[in-house]
Specification:
- This protein is mainly beta and 535 residues long.
- The strands form eight sheets. Strands 23, 24, 25, 26, 29, 33, 35, 36, 38, 39 and 40 form an eleven-stranded mixed sheet that branches.
- Strand 23 and strand 24 form a beta hairpin.
Length: 535
């Protein structure tokens, strides 16, 4: 197996910067965040921190020449210690190091933390033309891996051909893949700032999961440095029997015992036989995702009915969302939590700030007059464009379940349509609900149920918060399974604190069409939730 020097993968490793972040003024340097470049997990989570020999990003303001853009530096010529007036200094335990820089802009810098950096809590400063910022904290950890993402999927290439795995070129069991990322840990055998022709393995213990299935150690052929400073690669044979879909989850646990940490949970298209991916629950497929990704604007419509029971009281929420998204549109699981049935995803954000990824711009679409026919009565939607939600009166749904029909008369941008969704029955019964009152992350969380509609799905979801750190997980299982275990490695990404755990019985998505829409889907679910202590 060859570790290929694929320049695309380096570029994908460093695509977290957005031109929208550039600015024309030059304020004094201010640091607002320091994160692993690939996972972008904020400080405050159990798996945050920056490992030596890894790529990291600094976000802030006034850190480089006003108006400068993020130009990727050539590591074959050696990465510079200063760029666009920016320089970095990191001090941990009395040792000070100077990271080499891949790119710099006034609001974001990407650099390589030197292998010799000690672990522990330290400080970091950015200087612009010799004027330093105030010192900001940095947590240097033995390892904290992050998968690179491209269009929301993990960056993975075929070990033989170098072909990129995409929504129309799915991975398949038995295929040997190279996964790209950063954060395996200190690599003194290779350079911190210069392209390396013969990279070395890194001795950090690793355990990989594909679709919640542990990968045998014998299937991991290589775990270590790539030819690029700070960029790591994992050579893995995809096991047989893994789930299929467009969003099969991937996780890498590095270290062992108390020092073990889970990566960001990425996704990958995997299908027996390869080709275009497909997901039965959503009805989406790789060909459609590829088509949407090629458009400059994507016009979407969604109607949703959610019946929820909390403390024994049933409430029904109707939602409509018709928006024009400035494309291309890809299902970024790091933001949406998209995951194939049988797997789990995680989301980690700070309540004091929006997610790190830059969301696509959305503008409302005018859909005109719209009404919802409930099991009892018809109810008009007050809005005629954009996103709107309303709680239906208790009399509209005298019992759980039922069919709801959305009827739109058409507006200036969306034509007339009818969308029918049915909340699954018989009603789902969460048989071990009391077990979710306290969740011990290291033990995983087993959930069991009876009921639910044949052919439907069960969505298990939960969250917790500590200070400004808010973490959540989302898992899907077929209703027929009657049980599911949220793995310990998934729960380990949540902060200890108070939160909620819930279960939804979700009907297969119901597509609808209308003039002016590229995609339209109807969603219906019945949900139960409880308060949870996460420890």
């Amino acid at each position: 197996m060859r570790i290929r020097a694929v320049s695309f993968c380096l570029a994908a490793s460093l695509t977290k910067w957005s031109p929208a972040l550039a600015q024309t003024s030059a304020p004094a340097p201010v640091i607002t965040a320091v994160m692993n470049n690939s996972s972008t997990i904020p400080a405050g989570f159990p798996n945050s921190g920056v490992a030596p020999s890894s790529l990291f990003v600094i976000q802030g303001s006034g850190m480089a020449t006003p108006g400068s853009t993020a130009m990727l530096q050539d590591s074959t010529a050696g990465l510079p210690a200063t760029l666009n007036g920016a320089g970095i200094s990191v001090t941990v335990g009395g040792t000070t190091v100077t990271p080499a820089i891949y790119y710099s802009s006034p609001t974001q810098i990407a650099a390589v933390l030197p292998a010799a950096t000690p672990t522990g809590t330290g400080t970091i400063t950015v200087s612009y033309n010799g004027t330093p910022s105030a010192a900001a904290p940095i947590q240097v950890v033995p390892s904290a891996f992050g998968f690179d993402l491209y269009h929301g999927w993990a960056v993975a290439t075929d070990a033989s051909s170098g072909a990129l795995i995409t929504e129309t070129n799915s991975a398949q069991p038995g295929e040997v893949l190279i996964f790209w990322g950063t954060g395996l840990g200190s690599d003194p055998a290779d350079s911190d700032n210069t392209y390396t022709g013969s990279p070395h393995a890194i001795g950090t213990p690793v355990q990989m999961y594909v679709g919640n299935t542990p990968v045998p150690s014998s299937a991991i052929a290589y775990s270590g440095a790539s030819v690029y400073p700070g960029v790591d690669v994992i050579g893995v044979t995809i096991p047989s029997g893994v789930i299929n879909g467009c969003f099969v989850p991937l996780a890498l646990v590095t270290g062992s015992g108390a020092s073990a940490v889970v990566s960001n949970v990425a996704t990958l298209p995997i299908m027996n036989g390869g080709g275009s991916c497909s997901d039965a629950m959503t009805g989406m497929n790789g060909t459609l995702w590829s088509s949407l990704g090629a458009q400059s604007l994507v016009r979407t419509g969604e109607v949703e009915i959610g019946e929820s029971v909390f403390n024994g009281t049933l409430s029904t929420l109707a939602l409509v969302a018709f928006v024009n998204i400035g494309g291309p549109v890809y299902p970024d699981s790091a933001i949406t939590g998209a995951v194939s049935v049988g797997g789990c995803s995680t989301l980690q954000i700070l309540s004091t700030a929006p997610p790190n990824a830059v969301a696509a711009s959305e503008t409302p679409l005018t859909f005109g007059n719209l009404s919802v026919q409930a099991p009892v009565g018809s109810y008009p939607v007050s809005a005629i464009s954009g996103v709107y939600s309303m709680t239906l009166p208790a009399s509209a749904t005298p019992a759980p379940g039922g069919t709801f029909v959305f009827t739109g008369g058409g507006g200036t941008e969306v034509g007339p349509f009818t969308a029918t969704v049915t909340v699954p029955t018989p009603v789902l019964n969460w048989t071990n609900q009391s077990d979710a009152a306290t969740v011990t992350r290291s033990q995983g969380l087993a959930v069991t149920w009876t009921g639910g509609a044949p052919g439907s799905y069960v969505h298990i979801l939960g969250s917790s918060s500590s200070g400004s750190a808010e973490g959540s997980f989302s898992c899907y299982a077929p209703q027929s399974a009657l049980q599911f275990t949220v793995p310990a490695f998934v729960l380990s990404a949540l902060p200890a604190g108070k939160g909620t755990t819930g279960m939804q019985n979700l009907a297969p998505y119901a597509p609808f069409s209308a003039t002016g829409l590229d995609t339209g889907e109807g969603v219906a679910y019945y949900s139960l939730s409880v308060s949870t202590k996460v420890q």
